[in-house]
Design a protein that fits this description.
Elements (H helix, E strand, L loop, with lengths): L1 H7 L4 H66 L2 H8 L3 H19 L3 E5 L7 E4 L13 H9 L3 E6 L4 E11 L2 E11 H12 L2 E7 L5 H8 L12 E6 L21 E8 L2 E11 L5 E10 L1 H52 L16 H21 L7 H5 L4
Antiparallel strand pairs: 1-2, 1-5, 3-4, 4-5, 6-7, 6-10, 8-9, 9-10
Length: about 400
Amino acid sequence: MLACARSMRHLPTEPALVLGATVLSLGLAAVGAEVVSRQVEARVEEVGAGVLRSAVEAFSAQQRSEIEKLGATLDALMASEQLRAAFLARDRPRLLQLALPIFDTLKDHDRITHWYFHEPDLSRRVFLRVHKPELFGDRVERATLGRAVETGDLGAGLELGRTALALRVVRPWYLEGKVVGYMELAVEVDHFLATLKSRTGDDYGLLVKKRFIDEQAWAAVLGPLANSWNGRSDVLAINTTAVTEGILDYQGDLERLGPAGDVLGEAVIGGRAYMRGVFPVSDAGGRPVGGLFVAHDFTAHHAAVQDARRATYAFLLLLAALAALGFAGLARRLVFRRLHQLRRRLERRAVGVIPATRPTVMSGHDDLARLETLYERALAAETAADSTPALTPSPSRASTRIP
């Protein structure tokens, strides 16, 4: 701007004024376009943040739906007299024989991955794991089972195992008003997230603090993929859908996430634009164990914002150019053309081409018309002064003396 101002000092008045008005108009238009574009972009990002929070609400709604479905399935299973008789008789082989075909159907149709039979006493020992029958007799300390034991009703929620999160539902098994055992069904969150993605179109990932995960069990389950353990020192991505790039970029403390989560803004991954956010995840016991990473495909909105940005710049710059052109036309018509005419008249009179005349009446009431009239009067007065002979004393009178 300073260089432009210095360069304009060497220009005639009219081009300098037009150039200055053009530069100022274009500069203000560019600033206005940037302000408008940023406001639009901020508004669109607010909408994107709202979409992310809607995705989290969808996660909670999906969780409630899964709990209702698993609870209804437990009611149906507990109504089986054959299963109840085998369990009451503590006939593990018979119970497994009856449960396996049912479990295969549940796994294929409902993606149920865990089925437990628990003892009714306070030992909380597992009588049978249908999904892993060779492991039994161990004590379970999970919050969902504890809630079912304490309340005599449904215990449900997310539970963090040694390698993954699972949604578990436990229901007391009643016979004639007495609790004879507990049955538990669970679905792993990877299926949970896949189902959620098919509904919302968003990508999800679960970030969990490493102190809640068994590293050896993680390596045993994932094998060659276990190198993801070293992606970040304190956080592990245990379940993700398609978009995993940048999921560990979040450097905040997951255990200190507020209820509203943390919106990370926009990122371009694989040629697609995503709005990202991390939201707190607690287990069935209310313990904050990690965060839900949500990536919403924002490509269409991103492209629309960029198009609107370019269109805003083009429109305002064109408008500024037209305004500068209009200003130049008005300035020439109202000021500079008349000044040029006045200058030509003055120059022609100065060389005697046009004789001086009496000043005419004012051609207008603006300052320029008054200036023209003043010049005319000044010229007329100067011409009149030049044409009047000088008064000199008479010689005869000068020599006459009074006696």
